[in-house]
């Protein structure tokens, strides 16, 4: 249902007038209650008429998830936004019977992974300890599904990228303020609890910011500033995994000629600028940070080796269904008595080994199939864009490929399978891979009619 429905539906118009009269009467006696009622009405109208806007709010909230974990981690604001988004989508289906539920092949893989996670929860040694982990899986599965359903065209896809990149840039700015001004910690973490997890989020967003710099000419200064802030915050996390991910993306871009040299040069210039500031203006602060990082680096390496070995031991005990979603810390703790670093809540620091130990071999196979499927879709888009001469589609696919490649590489060093990038990039790959004539009418208008043009005559190129 959209706002135009109120103009055509007399019942909706009468209801709107009645609600307005009630609020006006309430304002005369209880202005605060009237204001609260007005906010509730506006919120209801947005939920009913603009599911896409609710989706964008959730996209922007994901980088701040750790700061929105109240009233509890299980029932957080982010999960509440997810529930509101589901409600908005259901109301959209009810209000528009013609809405098509898109069943994509990659969605089938995600569904199978969700079913397997559910089975792992049921047969876990203590299912109660797996509820929180299962809810996080459910949140991102639903997020993936709704992205695929609600993002209709390339401009909507760009809008998602803008909201996500802007939110990450604000998180990076907040993190740098904490690091440089309040000096609450020796590594940048911002709204994310762990600096390595924050570096993963920042690094995977850099290619998106680079794409927006080239695409949004009017907002180019803002996106350049966002790119520099994100890069600076990522370097200040002192995450070696993030640097490896950036290096692999740069090497891939050079070898495949997918990334223009000016983009790599601009990234290098931003990094050198941050490094120059670190060695001059902020040198005392960075000296302390480097000292702390060197002090713990060797112990971190030994600790991660121990954590990975423990994940393999747990997999050997329950190779089919794993120990249960989110139960690695509980099961691993008794096996880590000789770990170089004392950990009260150990994590695997490897997304693939954690998925393997908690969900078994099938869960890891489905996760790898999901990532490989997303990469394959983007490769297909690259080939299509080259054949059609669509430069913007090629740049967009390249940006998503670079972001996904960074995420896949960096996930080898941290446990981030239950964070936004994997599921966001996978869903956007599905959206971008849809038939181009049905996806970007402006592009379709300059192309000859194809097989699917006959199936969708209303969106195909006009006849000569």
Describe the structure.
The protein contains 20 helices and no strands. By secondary structure, it is mainly alpha-helical. It has one domain (104-443). Helix 15 packs parallel to helix 17. The protein is globular. One of its GO terms (cellular component) is membrane. Residues 225-367 form the O-antigen ligase-related domain.
Task: Itemize the secondary structure elements and their pairings.
Blueprint: H1 4-8, H2 10-29, H3 31-49, H4 51-61, H5 77-95, H6 105-122, H7 131-150, H8 154-182, H9 195-215, H10 220-236, H11 240-256, H12 261-279, H13 283-317, H14 328-332, H15 351-388, H16 391-410, H17 420-432, H18 436-439, H19 441-444, H20 451-455
Helix pairs in contact: 2-3, 4-5, 4-8, 5-7, 6-7, 6-15, 7-17, 8-9, 8-10, 9-10, 9-11, 9-16, 10-12, 11-16, 13-15, 15-16, 15-17, 16-17
Radius of gyration from CA coordinates:
24 Å
What would you call the shape?
A: globular
The main pleated sheet reads as: none
Low-pLDDT parts are 1-8, 12-17, 34-39, 444-464
| Helical content (DSSP H or I, runs of 4+) | over 70%
Give the count of structural domains: 1
- Number of DSSP strands? 0
Strand content: under 5%
Q: Count of helical segments? A: 20
**Mean pLDDT across residues:** 78
Q: What is the chain-wise order of helices and strands?
A: HHHHHHHHHHHHHHHHHHHH
* Structural classification: mainly alpha
CA(first)-CA(last) distance: 35 Å
């Amino acid at each position: 249902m959209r706002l135009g429905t109120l103009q055509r539906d007399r019942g909706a118009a009468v209801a709107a007038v009645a609600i307005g009269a009630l609020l006006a009467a309430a304002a005369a006696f209880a202005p605060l209650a009237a204001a609260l009622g007005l906010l509730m009405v506006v919120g209801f109208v947005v939920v009913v008429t603009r599911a896409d806007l609710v989706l964008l709010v959730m996209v922007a909230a994901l980088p701040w998830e750790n700061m929105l974990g109240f009233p509890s981690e299980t029932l957080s604001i982010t999960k509440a936004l997810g529930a509101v988004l589901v409600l908005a989508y259901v109301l959209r289906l009810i209000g528009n019977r013609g809405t098509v539920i898109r069943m994509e092949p990659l969605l089938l893989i995600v569904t199978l992974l969700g079913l397997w996670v559910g089975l792992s929860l049921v047969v876990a040694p203590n299912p109660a300890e797996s509820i929180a982990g299962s809810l996080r899986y459910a949140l991102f599965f639903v997020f993936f599904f709704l992205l695929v359903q609600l993002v209709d065209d390339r401009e909507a896809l760009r809008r998602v990228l803008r909201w996500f990149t802007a939110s990450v840039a604000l998180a990076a700015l907040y993190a740098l303020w904490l690091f440089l001004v309040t000096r609450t910690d020796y590594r940048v973490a911002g709204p994310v609890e762990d600096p390595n997890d924050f570096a993963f989020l920042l690094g995977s967003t850099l290619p998106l910011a680079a794409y927006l710099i080239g695409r949004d000419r009017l907002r180019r200064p803002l996106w350049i500033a966002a790119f520099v802030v994100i890069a600076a915050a990522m370097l200040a996390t002192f995450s070696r995994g993030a640097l490896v991910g950036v290096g692999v993306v740069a090497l891939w871009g050079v070898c495949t000629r997918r990334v223009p040299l000016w983009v790599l040069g601009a990234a290098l210039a931003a990094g050198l600028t941050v490094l120059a500031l670190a060695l001059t203006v902020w040198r005392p602060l960075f000296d302390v940070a480097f000292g702390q990082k060197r002090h713990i680096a060797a112990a971190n390496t030994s600790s991660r080796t121990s954590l990975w070995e423990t994940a393999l031991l747990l997999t050997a005990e329950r190779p089919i269904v794993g120990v249960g979603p989110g139960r690695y810390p509980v099961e691993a703790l008794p096996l880590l008595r000789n770990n170089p670093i004392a950990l009260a809540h150990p994590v695997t620091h490897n997304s693939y080994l954690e998925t393997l130990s908690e969900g078994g071999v099938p869960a890891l196979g489905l996760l790898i199939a999901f990532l490989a499927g997303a990469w394959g879709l983007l490769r297909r888009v690259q080939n299509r864009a080259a054949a059609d001469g669509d430069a913007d589609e090629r740049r967009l696919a390249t940006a998503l490929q670079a972001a996904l490649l960074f995420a896949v590489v960096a996930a080898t060093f941290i446990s981030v399978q239950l964070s936004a990038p994997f599921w966001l990039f996978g869903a956007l790959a599905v959206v971008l891979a849809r038939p181009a004539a049905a996806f970007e009418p402006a592009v379709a208008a300059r192309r000859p009619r194809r097989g699917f043009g006959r199936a969708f005559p209303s969106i195909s190129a006009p006849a000569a």
